[in-house]
Amino acid sequence: MRESAARYVPHAGPMLLVKDITHNHADGGTVETAIAPDSMFVDSNGFVSPLIYVEILAQAFAALDGYTSHLEGKASGKGFLVGLKSCVFHDAPPVPAGAQMVATLDVEGRADAFTLVRGELTYEGELIMSGILKLYQPEQD
Which of 46, 59, 87, 116 could disulfide-link to 131, CB 3.0 to 4.6 Å? Predict the structure, then answer.
């Protein structure tokens, strides 16, 4: 499958960091992205700043969650990244602008309006960042 992530993420323009949903299941999936060379998140040497890896994972989950809601005929709700646990930036080569990265996410648990999601970000098959995201998704009015 290949579905544009932009439709399911509240970000746009230069703040939209995810491209395509490539696999989806009820509790996660995979999302691909590549950061454009002219992005504000690319340093003067042409490499993607690792500081946005967490945001890539958060947006990837938003895309997957929004897509699942769409498939179920429900409106997509808002969500907020409120915490990180066991966040590791792995010893990996820098990611050049334009290179494909793959975010893989799996829900670890849900309680009330909170969701814990295990995320991994890879580049050329190598793990570059992993961690557990804590997300708050308030009920819609």
Answer: 87
